[in-house]
Design goal:
Blueprint lengths: L1 E10 L5 H11 L3 E6 L5 E7 L1 H11 L7 E9 L8 E3 L1
Length: 88
């Protein structure tokens, strides 16, 4: 099990980035959450099989059609045993 905390920079608020993240994470069988931050970034915690986590980060670099992510900060953290993926 791998877990990451992420901060996504760029045009990621107001473009359905969170909803897209929830749908994509669920398709990949990941657990965690995603939320907007006051500084215009999107924060997320994802955990699951290493290959699925890697695939999710790769997809988040593009995001949904109207998004324009410029950079993703990532930090490996301990998995918390979450089940499901939610928007906060």
């Amino acid at each position: 099990m791998t877990a990451l905390d992420l901060v996504v920079h760029g045009r990621v608020q107001g473009v359905f980035y969170r909803d897209w993240t929830v749908r994509t994470a669920r398709e990949l069988g990941l657990a965690g959450w995603v939320r907007n931050e006051g500084d215009g970034t999107v924060a997320a915690h994802i955990e699951g099989e290493p290959q699925a986590v890697e695939a999710m980060v790769a997809r988040m670099r593009d995001g949904p059609p109207r998004a324009a992510p410029t950079r993703i900060e990532q930090r490996e953290v301990a998995a918390t045993g979450l089940t499901g993926f939610e928007r906060r």
